[in-house]
Amino acid sequence: MWEQVRGFQKAMAPIMQQAKDGVHIICYSQGGLICRGVLESMDNHNVDTFISLSSPLMGQYGDTDYLKYVFPHYLKENLYKVAYTSYGQDISISNYWNDPHHQDLYKETSVFLAVLNNQTAKNDKSVEYKNNFLKLKKLVLIGGPDDGVITPWQSSHFAFYDANETVVEMKGQEVYQRDYFGLKTMDARGDVTTYEIPGVQHLDWHKNQTVFDNYIEKWLT
């Protein structure tokens, strides 16, 4: 994931430099996490509004068709045995695999999501990451119950499973309550907006005209 972040930073930097009034970014699926990586690790970004379109912002934990394609011999219950190794962390989905039953191992081995969330002492730039995130003026979180890929789908709203696999909403998450990367501060400013949109499957978000017209276009001003 960090390799992808660096590639997108390289592509986005000249666009930002030319846009003196700032830019808006729309980031879809795994791209939402890549954009988080860009924002948090880029000291001079000028992103005004970050629109996250069905992205696993708090991670992924589910037996989806995509998971079976990448790891055909593993189910979600035992994927941690591979994902939380140095080899596993070379695979993008492992960088944001968030097993609610093995949180200590996740925080110890994750080189990406735990770093973005400031859940690990390994991030010596945690203050910079938080400050960079808070440079955003607006955060728009879009997801829905019929997505079928992001698991739980509420990860797109910074919610996630607890150890009983019950979804805990954003405001109940430790990263929010302790304001690890600035989400609580941004929410207190009134700058976080969430949309729950039923009837949209994962591969359709970025080509659904209604989603764009009703939930995205208004932020592109």
Automatic annotation (TrEMBL):
Gene3D superfamilies: alpha/beta hydrolase. It comes from the Eukaryota. Its EC number is 3.1.2.2. GO terms for molecular function: palmitoyl hydrolase activity; thiolester hydrolase activity. It is found in: Lysosome. Transmembrane segments: none annotated. It holds the Pfam family Palm_thioest. Its main location: other. This is palmitoyl-CoA hydrolase. It comes from Branchiostoma lanceolatum.
